[in-house]
Write a structure and sequence with these properties.
about 290 residues, single chain, elongated, 10 helices, 2-enoyl-CoA Hydratase, Chain A, domain 1, alpha/beta, two-stranded antiparallel sheet
Length: about 290
Amino acid sequence: MSDINDNRLIRVLTALCCDPWLLSPQIHKQLTDIVMAHAKGGDFEANQHAFAVSMGENPAKRKYAIYNSTAIIPVDGVIGRKFSSALYSSGVTSSDVLDRMIQTAAADEQIDSIMIVFDSPGGMAMGSPEVAQTIKAATEKKPVMAFADGLMCSAAYWMASQANVIYAMTSADTGCIGCYCAVLDEHRYAEMNGLKVKMFNAGAKYKGMGYPGTELTKEQEDIIAQRVKAISDNFKAAVRSGRGPIADNVMEGQSFNSADALANGLIDGITTWDEALRDLQSLTKMRGRR
């Protein structure tokens, strides 16, 4: 089991360092520190584990609650694909598990509506569009509400934008629309320490780009920039598909308090969780689900 968890940690760490993200950079740094702590073990791991727990605990069994035939599905912490159970104490959400929960709730005849409760700064680009599509498909079967119970940013907002309606608590933070990919250029550091990394890639000029100690060529930088732009463009298109004509200057990577998010069309109302649930049940009755 230890080898399995080690392999998963390596996969997560690789994604953190190499893949495009829909996440606030501060949380990205914290998550990287936590994964590194688990990988290193010892006292360092123990200290970082204590910090991880302070970020919030992941729901133990990853199952949704049911209240008066409404499925309540939590999305807490950083979102990523196939996150190791070793990271659950850090308050993460696996997008593949989330996708299955939404599909299950949408297909369950005893469930009349779905409320997805977000407190997430975002996460990996990979897997997020698929969850957004699953939410959109669920709205064709029954009412789906997204509720910002804290953070609903980046990947979390991409998903939420496909719900029938979005509500937020007064002090919520919403938006952060866009994508980035950070590549650490260590080639000068290596040279200062007497090291020079040579890459042999058999004529495949993009193979191995970003390898530690190497310098990105202009063509390689362009490839990464194009990939990030494509993801960002898809994100913005999905938001406009779900929310209508959102202005360009609202989708430049910034987040908004609830009042500004409402004014800019990112959410539909500011309310408490209980009031949002009552409104969802009223919407359910209007659609003839009860």
